Amino acid sequence: VVALLAVAAIGYLTLQAYKVNGPAYQQIVLGKDLIADVLPPPAHILEPYLVVHELALAEDAKSIERLTTEFTALKRGAGAYDERHGHWQQTLPAGALKSALVDKADGAAQEFFMIAEQEFIPLVKAGQQTHALDVLRNRLTPAYDRQDRKSTRLNSSHGYISYAVFCFKKK
User: Fold this and answer.
1) From CA 1, how far away is CA 113, in angstroms rounded?
2) Cα–Cα distance between 14 and 27 in angstroms, integer?
3) What is the DSSP string of 96-117?
4) Phi then psi for 60, rounded to 5 degrees?
5) Which long-range contacts (CB under 8 A, 24 or more apart) does 65-69 make?
6) CA–CA separation, 42 vs 128, rounded Å?
7) Cα–Cα distances in Å, from 67 out to 31, 57, 122?
8) Residue 42 in contact with residue 83, Cβ under 8 Å?
9) Residue 140 near residue 49 (C-beta atoms within 8 A)
10) Residue closest to 55 by CA, chosen among 142, 109, 115, 104
11) What confidence tens digit (pLDDT) does each residue in 42-94 have?
12) Band of pLDDT at residue 160, cut at 50, 70 and 90
């Protein structure tokens, strides 16, 4: 009887510690929230957009090379845009959220990266700042704005985030 009560007590305490909204869960959520608040989101092109602006102002070849390398890493590096996009493409169930993130927002992001890599960065490297600024204003900024609007909709009243939570709870 004592052993049975001990097992029941240990089971109860374990469930209390590890249940949803329990202490362990709260620590995990706190850590994820902190990371989300401190680090730029790799599934959004905000940081590459800032690097493009830095490139537009760069004055020496060393800075341009460093920023170009940083830009490439933000697209293709570990934990960067392409990797996170692939993760969500494989992980999210079919539906509104996946369509919004993987298809619609990604199309604008891929356009942004293509323009930056094929037009903007070569102009910066060639010292053609005036033309590079024109590409930044007239091509990159509109592509960024489209991706930003489509990504922001994920967090708006469309309910995509609630839908995502519902889908993952069903698994």
Assistant:
1) 67
2) 15
3) HHHIIIIIIIHHHHHHHHHHII
4) -130, 155
5) 68/121, 68/124, 68/125
6) 29
7) 30, 11, 13
8) yes
9) yes
10) 115
11) 788 999 999 999 999 999 999 999 999 999 999 998 888 999 888 888 988 88
12) very low
> Could you tell me the two tokens for 55?
């490139």
The owner of tokens 């001990």 is 6
Q: How far apart are CA 117 and CA 66, in angstroms?
A: 15
Q: Are 17 and 105 in contact (CB under 8 A)?
A: no
Count CB-CB contacts under 10 A for residue 149: 13
- What are the tokens at 42? 């790799």
C-beta of residue 17 within 8 angstroms of C-beta of residue 124: no
Chain centroid to CA 159: how far? 19
